[in-house]
Amino acid sequence: MTAALELREVRKKFGRTEIIRGVNLDVAKGERHALIGPNGAGKSTTFNLISGRFSPSSGTVKLNGVDIGGLPPYKINRMGLSRSFQVTNIFHRLSVFENLRCSVLWALGYRYSFWHRLGQLRDARERADEVLELIGLQGRRDTHAGLLTYAEQRALEIGITIAGGAEVILLDEPTAGMSRSESDHAVELIHRVTIGKTLVMVEHDMSVVFGLADRISVLVYGEVIATDTPEAIRNNRSVKEAYLGTTLDEPAGAH
Ligand SMILES: Nc1ncnc2c1ncn2[C@@H]1O[C@H](COP(=O)(O)OP(=O)(O)OP(=O)(O)O)[C@@H](O)[C@H]1O
Ligand SMILES: [Mg+2]
Fold first, then answer.
1. Model pLDDT, residue 180
2. Which pLDDT value is given to residue 254?
3. I need a labelling partner for 99 at 20 to 30 A (CA). Which of 75, 82, 144, 235 fits?
4. Of 17, 39, 43, 203, best ligand 1 pocket probe by most atoms within 8 Å of the beta carbon
């Protein structure tokens, strides 16, 4: 079966510094895959290479078997891939519902001349309300996004990411900065919204990783040093060394 995502010998240089040094990564359709690794390893950069924000210096990136390396983000998005950012990225002065409706519109094929009749677009309204329910923010429908709690903003962001119906979802540290109970709740949410889809997530919190991932890839200094099941990764010697014997054995979530 064709992989949802396939990276082969992907490299990325910024000036003279090679940050991504020959990444190989395969994500199967329907899989939930976690990308872990120390700070500065190149995880977000890898996401940027997949989503089209950066183009690779060399190597290939395929989405459902189609080469997407060097395509602009909007084209890759139309081909069924959607991502969230490490830093919260929502419209603070729009309501929760309006934020979702914006992201639905593009996916439904509405382009540049729709603003004057926004209120009449029933399909967009219905889809936005559907996503609202899926992310559990019905009670906050008409609240300005800027007034939500941090955890609610991250939930909204996940809603925005999935609203367009993409089949491959990339989430960059969706639970960063959350309390234990908030991130437990986020795990449940991420699980629910990615049923039947393919997920790749960057995550530092090991209990989130172990709670969601079918497989884990470990990125260290611009290279994937291991890809395996959570159990095998937990016991992998070179992975432990890369983490200096820390995080992996801990229950995690010390914040
Ligand atoms: N646009 C850029 N220009 C130059 N260097 C960059 C650029 N983007 C990232 N880098 C560098 O690439 C390296 C990897 O950064 P990246 O953000 O991908 O790491 P990360 O694994 O996501 O780290 P973190 O866990 O802290 O989010 C860092 O040294 C960073 O400074
Ligand atoms: Mg990052």
1. 96
2. 42
3. 75
4. 43
Output the ligand 1 site: residues, CB below 6 A: 14, 19, 37, 39-45, 86
CA of 93 relative to ligand 2 center, distance in Å: 26
Beta bridge partners of 12: 20
- Across-strand partners of 199? 32, 169
Q: 131 C-alpha to center of ligand 1: Å?
A: 32
Instruction: Give the contacts of 69 (CB within 8 A, at least 6 positions apart).
Output: 10, 49, 55, 56, 59, 60, 61
Domains and CATH numbers, the chain: 1-73+199-255 (3.40.50.300)
d(CA 80, CA 63): 9
pLDDT value at residue 239 = 87
Q: What global pTM score does this model have?
A: 0.91
Query: Closest residue (by CA) to atom 16 of ligand 1?
Result: 42
Contact 163, 107 (CB under 8 A): yes
Q: Which of 85, 98, 80 is nearest to 4 (CA)?
A: 80
Distance 51 CA to ligand 2 centre (A): 14
Question: Sign of torsion, CA 95 100 101 105?
Answer: positive
Q: How many CB atoms lie within 10 A of CB 146?
A: 12
Which atom in ligand 1 lies closest to the alpha carbon of residue 222? 14
Residue 169 Cα distances to 27, 40, 47, 209, 231, angstroms: 11, 22, 11, 15, 24
Query: What's the pLDDT score for residue 243?
Result: 72
Residues with CB under 5 A from ligand 2 (ion): 43-44, 86
Instruction: Take atom 4 of ligand 1 and give the residue whose Cα is closest.
Output: 14
